[in-house]
Amino acid sequence: MATAALYQTVAAKLRDAIADGSYPPGSRLPSEHAIAERYGASRNTVRRAFAALREDGLIASHQGARRTVIAEPRLQSFSELRSFSRWARLVGEEPSGRVIRLERRPATEEEAERLDLGPGEPVVHLVRVRLLSGRPVMIERTAYADRAGSLLGFVDLERESVSERLEEHGIFFAHAEHVIEAVNAGPEDAELLDLAQGAALLRERRRTTDPDGRPLEWSEDLYRGDAVAFTVRNSLAAAPLVRHHLTEERP
């Protein structure tokens, strides 16, 4: 059974500790050796976890010194694949959801293409409004491959993260391609997000696969432009951010 990379687990636990004030800004994290013993990890794994925190702008490191906390998590980052619920808790908010539609139906032509399905194969389609501490901030419209979507009956869609619950059943969201665009709210979007029609939204279209590269979901998420920001960090040593002209075919 596939498992999430250990360094990601260690990084997530350290983020939680930073978010809840266990390591406030200006404090120093424990040594690599101490963290390795605490989580049963190698020091190389701990270094990778620290690197992830550094990429998120949460810690600074200086040669020969322990890592210093410099910020609390506030933005949604693409340096690590992270669910809405996990991110919300990291920024001190209480995530929840309101289900608008949930149905099993044949895939549309686009869904079949994105999920590598044959014509007429089923998907589970979920439309859900996501809330931060009771305030609607995002609409998710997600088509799940049937092997993942068939497990949604085990998920409390008003209170739980789909990805977190599916991990308990051996379904792991490991890789994703994102396209971010600015769009205007249509009538349904405006009503669900309590906005004026035509208000600015950020649209994230996402194709997510498991550790073996098999598609799990094709999603269109619409965020209130005044509620959520995204950050992308890149370097010459890492895969660069790719810009697409809007007339080009997009992933």
UniProtKB/TrEMBL annotation:
PROSITE patterns: HTH_GNTR. The keyword rRNA-binding does not apply. This is GntR family transcriptional regulator. The keyword Transcription regulation applies. Keywords: DNA-binding, Transcription, Transcription regulation. Pfam families: GntR, UTRA. SUPFAM superfamilies: Chorismate lyase-like (SSF64288), Winged helix' DNA-binding domain (SSF46785). Residues 4-73 form the HTH gntR-type domain. CDD domains: WHTH_GntR. Gene3D superfamilies: Chorismate lyase-like, Winged helix-like DNA-binding domain superfamily/Winged helix DNA-binding domain.
